Each structure stands twice: as structure tokens, then as C-alpha cells.
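Sequence in, structure out. Go.
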Amino acid sequence: MSEEPELTEAEALAAEHALGVLSAAERAEAEARMARDPVFAAEVAAWRIRLAPLLDMVAAVAPPAALWARIERRLPANDNDTDRERAVRRLRFWRGTAMGAMGLAAASLAAVVVLMGRPPVVVQPRPAAPPAPLLNASLMPQAGGAQPLFVAAYDPDRQALIVTSLVPPGTDPLHVHQLWLIPQDGKPRSLGMVEPGKSRAMPMPKPMTDMVEEGAELAVSVEPPGGSTDPQGPSGPIAAKGKLGRI
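Output:
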């Protein structure tokens, strides 16, 4: 298997937060970091924009009618001072935000009135290079089925692949799922393991970035623990496969 460079801790945390795969404690840590670190907050926002098309690849599921009632029953009691104080702080924050937005709108309108009396300034925009297209793939089961087993999105600008396993955890504890890139030359390249039910951000090794293009194929094989025993490619059966295409 090929060695792959890892994302930095901040990049990985931002991608996982954007995907919504963090635990409650990890999510709280990420949101606290966003509040104090504008660079990290921008990283999360960038991943959310890039990964938004993945939402269209998973069918919507209506929540049970009694879900909200169960959520309300599990909320802390109203006589908890800590929770009441937290709720009051949030209410004040949103009220303050709304008033601040109204003030900003009024100030903006006043600025428009002043600027209307000035002669127009013509600014020649600088031509910007178009962003590289985001690629995605739905890896469909080879045994037949209407729903993908894995979905993936590749960001050429960041040279990173986000892959999400839709396979329920614990389905086959005796095997692992190994992801492969199959470019135009037809030779499989290992990208690493994908854990059932989880998402993973995979930076693309430099020699392979030019191979990740529209029409290239992604495949997942079922392998023994540790991965394929064949250095030339998968040693186990292919469970799912799909081609990268533009979003």
C-alpha cells in the first residue's frame, strides 16, 4: 500500500466538523475553537461549501412523529440554574444580533444615500482564475442495489478526498474495506482503509493528484485485516465501484 500524507490536525477537525461526524464532546471543542480562531472557522466554512453537494446524494429520511417529544423529555429540567443561565445568554445573544443587524442595515442605507451624490468610480475587475471543478462519486454495490455504499468528493484545490461509508458498523467484523483509485491506465492505487459508518479525509499523494480526474474510478474491496495481500491491487472482492464526475 502507498504511504499517504496526513491532513493537519486543524484541517482534519474542520472537515470532520463540516461532515457532522464528531461526537458531542468533539463538536463542542470544535465550536469553541471556531469562536476563538477565525482561521479555523474559515476552514470549517470552506469545507461546508465544498461538501454541500454530498447532501443531494443521500435520500432524505422523515423523523418519527414522536421525536421532538422524546428530545424535550431528555432536556435538563427548567430549574437547573446553569441551563437557565445558558439559555438566557443565548437569548440575549440572538436579540443583540438582531438589533445589531437592524443598526447595520440603517447605517448601510445612510451610506448609500451619501454615495449616490458622488460621481461613479469605474474599477476594472481583475480576471480571476476559475476554480477547479469539484468531483464526486457514488460507489454502487456490485451485487446490485439502488443505494450507494460509499460517497466521495474530491477538491482539486485542496487535493483532498472526503469519503463516507454508508455501510452500518459491525456488518462484517472479520474484514476491512480498502479504497482504490483506478485512473485511465486501469492500474489500481490504494488510498487506504475506510471504516464502516464513518467519514475520512484523505490528502492525495503528489504522484496521484493528476490521476484524480473526471472519469477516473473509485472502488472498495473487501480485504483481510491489514489490507490487500496482493501488491498489485485488491486481493478480495470488489464491494462497490463508481466513477468521478463533475458536480
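Check: DSSP finds five helices and nine strands in the chain. Confidence is low (pLDDT under 50) at residues 1-5, 87-118.
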